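Bug #77: duplicate submission created two jobs. Keeping one. Sequence:
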Amino acid sequence: MDFTVGLDMSRFDRAVERTHEEFTRGIHESVENAAREGAAEAKRVGQFKDRSGDLRAKIHAQERQETALTATWSIVSPQPYSMFVEAGTKPHKIEGNPLLKFYWPKVGAWVALPSVNHPGGRPFPFMGPAAQKAERVLYRDLVLVREKLRLIWKR
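Kept job's structure:
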């Protein structure tokens, strides 16, 4: 008496290939979406007075690396003074420069001074909330990717 066991792997192979493609696409799209929504959040929640418009306008999502196994995006605020707006500043002395003039409200004019005691500035967080938003979006999108993969395996 013979007993034979067999398994047709063709459906399994297609499911594995499709799962890998969906997983990779889903991860890359989720990371990109999280960074883009995080950048939009930074622009939206920033309570700072943006006199030139540059700080808010230049916030963006930027792809750092994307390979089959890696998806890395950043939320970027390229203005050199971004960190001072985000975290605030302690009182500090600003040394003068012959070419640099300070506006003196009591006089109502621009005046060349050897130095000025700056009172410091309060923080106006915008990148911290952006990171929190990106984290929420990434989690939400990865749950959707997981659900898509479950549907593939149920077929």
